[in-house]
């Protein structure tokens, strides 16, 4: 299924497009993904719709079989990529788990802004984006996933999320399809 409609109060939520993450190897170039996310952000701002920029500043404390080695983060690790064109009215969320809802004000902020639908973009498709999509769906938000404005460290993981998981959580579409739905003729 592709994206069919956007609610009047839809927010863009961009996951982890930050300098520290952008330095990691990804299936699709992070620069191209950030450019598409930036186009989405500009289109949402032009329509006075909320833009939420999420960064990650650590991890959940639980033990896993694939815990990454202890890493010392650079001073600019959490800085958002310039392609996003961060604006003062954008809502910034700093998370410490895979998804953007636990331990943050995201749910209450979205609801207080009257948001009923979110469009997701960012990195990593199978981790931060998918976790946030699952959480949003469980909280009752309509979810749209901008599949060309996201990437993953693994092409297989990205493909699995896009083809098997996302259709169960919402609708998928390209950056251009989503922007087209924001045009005045679709009000």
TrEMBL record:
InterPro entries the UniProt entry points to: Isochorismatase-like_dom, Isochorismatase-like_hydrls, Isochorismatase-like_sf
Assigned keywords, A-Z: Hydrolase
One matching Pfam family: Isochorismatase
Span of domain Isochorismatase-like: 10-177
PANTHER family, sorted: ISOCHORISMATASE FAMILY PROTEIN YECD (PTHR43540:SF7), PEROXYUREIDOACRYLATE/UREIDOACRYLATE AMIDOHYDROLASE-RELATED (PTHR43540)
Protein name: Isochorismatase family protein
